[in-house]
Amino acid sequence: MGQEPGGPRAAGSAQRAGLEEGEQVEVEALSGEIVIRRAAARADALARSKAAAEAIAVEARRYTLAGVAIRDLLDEGRRR
Predict the structure, then answer these.
(1) Residue 14 domain-assigned?
(2) Is 1 among the domain residues?
(3) What is the pLDDT of residues 27-57, one digit of tens each?
């Protein structure tokens, strides 16, 4: 790695974390801790969540409640 903006210490931390030179990351401070996320990992998580939502929607279309209202099912569950 070349001369990093954060100096040699930051470069060593990035290298130990498995980051490649030029790799895009997101940096966030949470409760006093610094969290670094790979931008590619966030995009992958978004794609996986969209695929999961679509799979749920497809599966939901396969089943019906046979005219029973969801509210009736919820109310029945509360009575038990």
Answers:
(1) yes
(2) no
(3) 889 898 888 888 888 888 999 999 999 999 9
